[in-house]
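Purpose: get a first structural picture of the assembly so the mutagenesis plan has something to point at.
Setup: two entries, given in the order below. No constraints added.
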Amino acid sequence: MRRGLVGVVLVSALVASSRAGGPRFLPDDPLTVEPETQDAGDAAPRDIDLVWDLAENLFGRPGDRVRGVRAQNVNTIDEVPDSGWFTNRIHARPMTVDAIGRGPLVGDGPAPGRWTITHPKSAGFAPGFRIRDSAGTVWFVSLDAAGFPESATGALAVANKLFWALGYYQVENHLTSVAADQIDLAPTARIRAESGRFRPMRRDDVDAVLARAARDPDGRYRAIASRGLPGKILGGFEYHGTRPDDPNDVVPHEHRRELRALKVFGAWVNLVDMKAGNTLDTVVPGPDGRRVVRHYLQDIGSTFGAGANGPREFDEGWESLLDGPQVLARLFTIGLYMRPWQRVRYQELPAVGRFEGDAFDPRTWSPRVPPAAFRHARADDEFWAARRVMAFSDALIRAAVRSGGYSDVRAEQLLGDVLIKRRDAIGRAYLPALTPLADFAFDTAGGLTFANVAAAAGVAAAPRDGYRVQWLAMDNATGETTPLGDVVDVAASPAPPPGQYPPGPDAVLTARVWAEDPAWPSWRAPVDASFMRRGDGWRLVGVDRQP
Amino acid sequence: MTLLWPAARVLVAALALPAAAAAQATRAEIIAQAQAEKAAAMPVDPPGLVERTVVGIRRAAIESPSGPYPIVDSVYLGGGPTAGAGYRQYVGDRTVAKVRGLYSVKDYKALEGHLLSPGHRRDTVDLAATVAWMDATQIGFHGLGMDAGIDDRANFRQRQTTVGGEATLRPRRPWALSAALAGERFVLGPGRGREPSIEEVYDAGDAPGLGSSPTYAHSMLSAGYDRRPAAGYARRGGAYTLRYHRYDRGGSGGFDRVDVDLVQHVPLRRETWVLSGHARLQSTVGGDVPYFLLPALGGGSTLRGYSSWRFRDRHALLMQGEFRWVPNLLGMDMAIFWDGGTVAAARGDLAWSRVVHDVGVGVRLHTPAQTPIRVELARGDEGLRLVMAAKAVF
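Result (structure tokens, whole complex):
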């Protein structure tokens, strides 16, 4: 892989212009939708090899070599616009219990009647197959492993709702069940034998799959049926670089905030298997007749405490597959160097596996193979992600868990409890890590309102010595600022309005705000909230929160 | 495959914004320009050589597993570093025919043909057939019993031709029952190497069967219970096997041998450490057992601090204990080990007082099911020995 040029590029296309010499803010700032202006219909299917993908990320350092680069797809108010990757949902707008319980599901599951297997399952270890239901709809069916009923299917159902709420494109995962005698085999179904050759699937192939699956007491098999995605299937995406054949894909994936944020979201739900093979790109109709690429987190079943074949290994989620310093420490101490995973207690239920929230520290959590986007995550990316996790109320979390259809109420309770604990740990870790001020606006009296989101979440106290506000007039052409009066001390929001306002129709007024508390010296790093005069009022056009 | 330079080029264009910004009125137009420039250039990023190689090998293994393959294995205990090549051809869904040739630094040679057909009867029956020829040029013989001296070594050459088959029945995992039948032709001769040839030092009284080149009908029955995740590498579980061998020379006699083999792995602190134990008793029954088929101890998988075939007699008891620690669950184990063993002419003489010991330390690189690299340093009463092997010790 060739590298290097990206390293010199530090400015996002979405926020770049003024720092490159143009106006600081443009008329359409802040963007709420990332434009997709080119036709991507020629994007071609490709297969990202599993072993290469893992080896490259485990032993190499793909992507930008320069660290500390700001996410390049954030808009001028430090948010992620809607795009083919992401849709603002929780935190951006109200989320109801009913909405999260349904998640991405827009229709019903497989039609009643017989299922016809058209293909064997082509990826992953969980037993399953591809079917066509009695209405002709294609579904990808995944079953629980024998001995671990409800674990894989429950995880797929619950995580599906959580990642949808977080903003990712998700397939429709329907919880259903099937009896063995309800399954037919299409005459065209073929399977690759150990010999490498394809041959027609036989009934004993189906029986072999079902033999590996958990069977309910009534003899049926609980399953997740994932609706086949529309459009041209392209295969997965990598967490670095861009798709060469998608002209709209201009931000290296390691610099996309929503992919960096998976470090936090993944820690929350213990999504340990983050690889290209668990993602999927499709070409779908876009605006104005153009075809665009949608990027799905397709398989999010490697969550919580169980894998496709039973409980997770003890170190999963605590260390990557190859954590050099840990390896050396254990090597030279005869294993006496201990990590939390060697001591932590689990309440192990088969449907949940090894999933806990007491010893969990999101800052040290790791998937099996950290992808490039993880290595580039900065404190502002983590802060952005943590706000979304903290937006899940207890009721929303329990509603999502309820969609897992657990027959054991203890499993449902445990999973909800742990997710709540891990959510709170994420809030404690990332919200106070930098100046936690947000939601800037003017009140009716012209005062500046803002929120201390760390204090609001209860993970830090309000700053002992209050806040400081410096009003500035910004020259939008150059980005240069001029103080408008002295620094003002305020105990809490709102801050008094500026004594004077910059003149002109496109004037920019900036509030530089920080907090004073000896316990949080990092809070002295100011946040700049910029407002542009639009008509009779001021519109928030900029939030600069660089760690 | 998703390479970086196209994105970099586009963003370099985005960086060139002082001029561009003047020409663009909105943020959306700036992005549209970057996308238009990428569309105009549409970079091509072929995968690099390393990626092509890795992907090619992997896909060949899955999509076209038939074909040649390299081998690092052993011809026979004591043969030294060995390499070879094989060719496999699938002749059914899971049935594969293999031929392979091996050659070691000590001029040990093997040519083998195998037909493996697993997974019959709902994956409960495995069948295998073998035709093999081997030439081991300098196998050690120190005499019988525990009193055989290190300086008493002589060498012999063993050429062996085997034609046989085996069936394994797994009525209910983890139980397995096996039956095998083979014709084994042994041709013994003067050994090579620095040590004297066996006939120069020993006679038939010291080395039973010396001078003969027998042919046996070798039958075997076994029953096993194996709860290990994989036989080639395990940190938990146990395997307990009882084997009965019959070596029959027709009217010229023969002998029996019973093997009891016990393996147990006990993980501690979530597999931070593993206590592993192995015990093996080999006991011959009746008849004349030729010197080259006597139970033996010594070498890289038994008494690691002693040379290969160091101790031979009609009965052999081996005990091995390992304290393993696991720096990396994915692929690396360390071990401190102890081996003890003894041989005797009578089973009742397998006494603790006659056990010899060694201790050592080792490193193993493994996959979830195999241990392709095992390097150990062992020290017994006769000095320090380096063990390099391509499989688990037990």
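Residues 409-430 of chain A form the longest helix (22 residues).
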